[in-house]
Design brief:
- The structure is a single chain.
- By secondary structure, the protein is of the alpha/beta class.
- The protein folds into two domains: about 25-55 and about 315-460, Aspartate Aminotransferase, domain 1; about 60-315, Aspartate Aminotransferase, domain 2 (3-Layer(aba) Sandwich), CATH 3.40.640.10.
- It has helices spanning about 25-35, 60-70, 80-90, 105-115, 130-135, 165-175, 200-210, 220-230, 240-250, 275-290, 300-315, 315-335, 355, 365-380, 385-390, 420-435; strands at about 50, 95-100, 120-125, 140-145, 180-185, 215-220, 255-260, 270-275, 350, 380, 385, 405-410, 440-445, 455-460.
- Helix 7 links the parallel strand 5 and strand 6.
- The longest helix is centred in the C-terminal third of the chain and has 20 residues, at about 315-335.
- The chain is globular and about 60 Å long.
- The relative contact order is 0.16.
- It binds pyridoxal-5'-phosphate.
- Pyridoxal-5'-phosphate binds next to helix 4 and helix 5.
């Protein structure tokens, strides 16, 4: 028997293919130099396997593509909107929905509707765009995630949970009337795709509501979260993803969603709530910032693709494959002794660059160098999540030195096969074996905000 474990395979077959460009090492050396050793500045054409992000990079199904032809492109009252509304009610439990062009459009609307200057907005770790909109609306973000979420090696089943003591302490300090809502992200992107338990969301909801505070879910990857609950939490083994998702959302007062993740689309998002007065505000504002409340910056066909994607995301085969594919890559690396963040999360594997490039000091950007070296080695594009992403302290001008110095390998949904992931793992293992041959980088151009997107480097 040639197999050491029971094989598994993608729960789809391939109908349309997109050729990949194979390049030489010399070619890639030139391209990464031109890109200032920043993988965000590479042209997609020059990339072989692109695991920069899972945002909007998904492969839609034939069912979604067929729906694209049924786009009702009316300015007002498109039938695709009513179908989206029906599915949001059915799967996410919320009464009212306002479509937006993507997740940050939804975050903009809810932040503007609920936050006033001087308000505090707690959350289980920040997310870049979510926090940006909360701050633009005059709020102050307060991190209330459990401590272990900041430790790359702490093996917990629900590492995204809210720390109820931290939440209570904030309420005691500033008063419930100064907290319009708590944002709960599920799963938590910045913690490595770590889930929140059903028990935790219920407890957060009880505590928040006792103090007149709303719970707004960042439901961008909530299906991945539902899968982890099914696998890890007592009492959910025999429940469907659809049931778990519905129950999870039912403890919250509303949600913002980026359709570019769980919903398998390339663009789209929405904000959903239960309170008719908040809905009224959102509906008034969306006309100014996005478009009429029955399209919110999307074409009818995009709303159709989202509605159909919602139906697909809760199918056991789809979500199980999604999580297992990420886990598969993680396990190949663990077996080869490569240091990664544990446990493996829902959407990505994170390489611990501090340990892999232990000869490069943090001021010489080891994770940035590792992402560049991986591209040079094999044309695989990943991204830095370390000192470059962390930026500088606004007051002192000093660079933040985050504990975690990581390279994120993010897997788009339904795009790559196991063989692609074998190539990724092989490349990393090969690179690891010769890791002391490389050197660090120096930054030669630094943008003032979100510097990681456009910063440029040279080899030391
Ligand atoms: C991507 C993302 C968003 C923002 O959505 P966009 O569609 O990129 O605007 C918000 N929250 C989380 C957790 C995300 O991953």
């Amino acid at each position: 028997m040639a197999f050491t474990r029971k094989p598994w395979a993608e729960p789809y077959k391939i109908k349309v293919v997109e050729p990949l460009k194979m390049t030489t090492r010399e070619y890639r050396l030139e391209k990464i130099k031109e890109a200032g050793y920043n993988t965000f500045l590479l042209r997609s054409e020059d990339v072989y396997i692109d695991i920069l992000t899972d945002s909007g990079t998904n492969a839609m199904s034939d069912y979604q593509w067929a729906g694209m032809m049924l786009g009702d492109e009316a300015y007002a009252g498109s039938k695709n909107f009513y179908y989206l509304e029906e599915n949001v009610q059915k799967y996410y439990s919320y009464k009212y929905v306002v479509p937006t062009h993507q997740g940050r459009g939804a975050e903009h609307l809810i932040s503007k509707a609920l936050i006033r200057p001087g308000h505090y907005v707690p959350g289980n770790m920040y997310f870049t765009t979510t926090r940006a909109h909360q701050e633009l609306a005059g709020g102050t973000f307060v991190d209330v995630i459990i401590d272990e979420a900041h430790d790359s090696q702490a093996e917990l089943p629900f590492k995204g949970n809210v720390d109820l003591n931290k939440f209570q302490a904030l309420i005691d300090k500033v008063g419930g009337e100064n907290i319009p809502y708590i944002t709960v992200g599920a799963t938590v992107n910045m913690a490595g795709g770590q889930p929140v338990s059903m028990a935790n969301i219920k407890a957060v909801s009880d505590l928040a509501h006792k103090h007149g505070i709303r719970v707004i879910l960042d439901a961008t990857r909530v299906t991945e979260n539902a899968y982890f609950i099914q696998q890890r939490e007592e009492g959910y083994k025999n429940k469907s993803i659809q049931e778990i998702l519905y129950e999870f959302c039912s403890y919250t007062d509303g949600a913002t969603v980026s359709g570019k993740k769980d919903v398998y689309t390339n663009i789209g998002g929405f904000v959903a709530v239960n309170d008719p007065e908040i809905f009224d505000q959102l509906r008034n504002m969306v006309v100014v910032y996005e478009g009429l409340h029955t399209y919110g910056g999307l074409a009818g066909r995009d709303m159709e693709a989202m509605s159909r994607g919602i139906e697909e995301m809760v199918q056991q085969d789809n979500i199980e494959f999604r999580i297992k594919q990420v886990e598969y890559l993680g396990n190949l690396l663990i077996e080869a002794g490569i240091p990664i963040v544990r446990p493996v999360g829902g959407h990505a594997v994170f390489l611990d660059a501090k340990r892999i490039y232990d000869h490069i000091p943090q001021e010489q950007y080891p994770a940035q160098a590792l992402a560049a070296d991986l591209y040079i080695h094999s044309g695989v594009r990943a991204m830095e999540r370390g000192i470059v992403s962390a930026g500088r302290n606004k007051e002192t001008g000093e660079e933040y030195k985050p504990k975690l110095e990581l390279v994120r390998l993010t897997i788009p949904r339904r795009v790559y096969t196991q063989s692609h992931l074998d190539v990724v793992a092989y490349s990393i293992i090969d690179l690891y074996q010769n890791r002391h041959e490389t050197t660090g980088l120096k930054m030669v151009y630094e943008p003032s905000v979100l510097r990681f997107f456009q910063a440029r480097f040279e080899r030391l």
